[in-house]
């Protein structure tokens, strides 16, 4: 008995982890399948088509990675706060403000700055994002203002500011539409596999995830913030400053979200426009929850949601599947990503005892 | 092994079904990319899909609408996928797709491309524009007649009407110049006040500006300012005067206080393009203008105001409309002719 269970036990944590990652997704696929059966479609055909549209060719795989790119940033930005026990839902607003900031630098600076415009635009976007989330961080750390409420409300303020700018002062004179001018060609991030829209922002995103992993595993502040998330009383007892930690993670979160907006503006749209983000900040929350804040999980989760977004759209070209199905699958993944946390832990305990 | 066989089998079946979709009709299928706001917006997208469905049915074409939550960011991937997937015609309703479409169209010579409300280059790309100046001319003519008739409730003694544009740009001044020209054609003494809100999304500012115009003696204000215009319509209601709606039928936003709306009939345009595509006359490389003659622009049905506007005025508007169609009246088009002497 002992010698058969030993290798299984060694594998257990890894299996357990991937199962935890996959479980919400499997449930969502089952729910989607039930709905497909009800509307008279064959779920296997639809899912096969979706798999093909997600990863069926190099072209489609790069479209998926392109759709995943903004999520790498927003999910890291969310995870930084979630693992500290700070429920920051303001990543969306910081992402949008980062986007308009980077676009502003990208079309305002004179062309003779050359490709130096790119780091400058990224830096400005990160600065604006960090400053933006510093506000709720300070409110929470100093005045105990609930961060869920403050960050949620600040999103609307961010939409208001960006909406005002793109409809007024930064409005492109060449069109009657709500867009800024295009950033200079030299300020546009290069594409990795042309003609796919996959751009260098994806690499930046991976670097951000790597930096996050490093911060989590190798730095004192990464460790301390995890302790704060584990138990504030304990953290305080061992001499960690809770307010300083809260402000730090909020600022880091805003910085990453701002970079993400910058990447999307410089790499994908080449400008800021109404409809800049379809809710990347909120999808990033789902990815962070699904991944339990683990860096590797964040990469897989982002690609998964990127695949849903890209295949869910193009699948409409070849079948009668409405976009709503994809929304249902996404929503179900999100719900079960949260719900399963408690159940799986219970399940694991009962197995081990 | 078995699993991969099943997968390969499914894929094979799937691929065949895709090819059959493309081959059942004589023509390659058409795709309609839905703009931001999505289906169910009660306006631009819903009108377009109605025209799309009608055009497909009439011409026996296959076609599909495509919606995406991230239609802005994924636009280029969607368009390329449609062309790679064997679609012969791709129409995008999203304004932001114009720039990428112009760049990618040469890569797909066997696909026809259509963009709206802008002029883009390409042998296999058609740009659809609307003759907003003609529709605005009718709106101006009607407004000039109504502002002179103090028997209508909400009309004052002054021969003053107004127009508020979202931004000072040729695309907006195209409406404004047509409107002024139409008003002057009825009565040269009509004073048309012009203002710009420098914003398309600020109803509060629209309301303020419209109120200022009403205080200044105007009793009818034409809104060419998108979301800012919602405030203009609200001001018309609260001040007891009139607004004129734009793009879609906005008469119902303040029943009885929106004199009429200057409609852009995207449904007519989409259906018209499908007709041309089906008969092998796709206008590649051309700017296709949908004007009064094709019903591409029009005044609304005036559901709530047709009973308070004297019938003679409506007859006059109908007369002016047929005169424009017959070429008896030339309406100034800022987008192609530049600015006229009477409006710089």
Could you describe the 3D structure shown?
The complex is a heterodimer of chains A (353) and B (344). With 353 residues, chain A is mostly helical. Chain A has one domain (69-352): ABC transporter involved in vitamin B12 uptake, BtuC, CATH 1.10.3470. Chain A has 13 helices and no strands. Chain A has helices spanning 2-38, 43-55, 58-82, 91-108, 117-143, 147-167, 201-218, 220-230, 232-237, 242-269, 280-290, 295-314, 323-352. In chain A, helix 3 (58-82) packs antiparallel against helix 10 and helix 4 (91-108) runs antiparallel to helix 5 (117-143). Mean pLDDT of chain A is 89; it is low at 1-6 and 343-349. With 344 residues, chain B is an alpha/beta fold. Chain B has helices at 2-24, 44-59, 75-84, 98-104, 132-147, 170-186, 203-215, 228-239, 266-278, 311-325, 334-337, and strands at residues 30-33, 63-66, 89-92, 112-116, 125-130, 160-165, 191-196, 220-224, 242-247, 258-264, 287-290, 297-299. Chain B is elongated. In chain B, strand 6, helix 6 (170-186) and strand 7 form a beta-alpha-beta unit. In chain B, helix 5 crosses helix 6, helix 5 packs antiparallel against helix 10 and helix 7 packs across helix 8. Chain B has two domains: 2-130, Rossmann fold (3-Layer(aba) Sandwich); 133-263 and 297-337, Response regulator (Rossmann fold). The model of chain B is unreliable at 9-25 (pLDDT under 50). The interface between A and B is large, with 50 and 50 residues.
